[in-house]
Amino acid sequence: MKRIGVVGAGTMGTGVAQLFASGGHEVVLVDVVASALDRAREEIARGVRLMPLLRPAEPRRDPGEVTGRIRFTTDLEELRAADCVVENVTEKWEVKRPLYADLDRICPPGAVLGVNTSAMPITRIASLTGRPADVVGAHFMNPAPLKPTVEVIRGFHTSDGTVERFRALLAGVGKGCVVVGDSPGFVTNRVMMLTVNEAMFLLREGVASAGDVDRLFKECFGHAMGPLETADLIGLDTVLYSLEVLYDDLNESKYRPCPLLRTMVDAGLLGRKSGRGFHSYEEVR
């Protein structure tokens, strides 16, 4: 697969576009907001410049050459020639539903439709199309260019051929994958969201500060990041949407979102992308 479509120029979509363009693919990055595309272009160039510091063993790439492989556009119709599309829009059903109807109409027969979602069942999203065998879950972790493994989700109708084509696409850009069955939150987020949510309850109850919660996980368990730092990196709005999906779909009270999380999202404290969440990131914006 040579031509890759990426829908959504937020944090995840920008990272996915950088990943495939760095791997030599032609990429069409689509967003409804032109300023988001401008920001994505800058972020991708910055990410490519920083890559030698983070991955010195990998070949150095020219930022202009990488961004030159990406067409930045607000026109979804430019996905007509895509061999694979990875969707990264916000975790809201009312946003995804009309988008998949459009992708079903626009994308050529046989194109793989990859769903980069934190929690929504792949089978449900595939039902929005007339080609459920071509739909596969593509749960990239943040930052997408750096994480070595992708959680790939097989929906009820996802064909073996779709899984293998997507696995080969990932291998071509240096990514491994673990294929799992379909369930809200899949494997990673069914487990991680419980930890993140409970960390918020501990903070709300005054048991420990945000810094101390994260420090315990890093220094006692050897984790690279604590649960509240992880929530900030994901985006608190995305964490909330994911918990709501888990709570509604699994009918399990253990996924009830912490009220502190709702308050912070209402206040616009979304984590790294807004400059403030459980920690402050003003200096890195």
Automatic annotation (TrEMBL):
Transmembrane segments: none annotated. Pfam families: 3HCDH, 3HCDH_N. Pathway: Lipid metabolism; butanoate metabolism. Its EC number is 1.1.1.157. Residues 4-182 form the 3-hydroxyacyl-CoA dehydrogenase NAD binding domain. Signal peptide: none annotated. GO terms for biological process: fatty acid metabolic process. It is an enzyme of class 1 (oxidoreductase). The keyword Glycosyltransferase does not apply. NAD(+) binds at G8, A9, G10, T11, M12, G13, D31, E91, K96, S118, N142, K273. Residues 185-281 form the 3-hydroxyacyl-CoA dehydrogenase C-terminal domain. The record marks H139 as: Important for catalytic activity. One of its GO terms (molecular function) is NAD+ binding. Keywords: NAD, Oxidoreductase. InterPro entries: 3-OHacyl-CoA_DH, 3-OHacyl-CoA_DH_NAD-bd, 3HC_DH_C, 6-PGluconate_DH-like_C_sf, 6PGD_dom2, NAD(P)-bd_dom_sf. Belongs to the 3-hydroxyacyl-CoA dehydrogenase family. This is 3-hydroxybutyryl-CoA dehydrogenase. It comes from Actinomadura viridis.
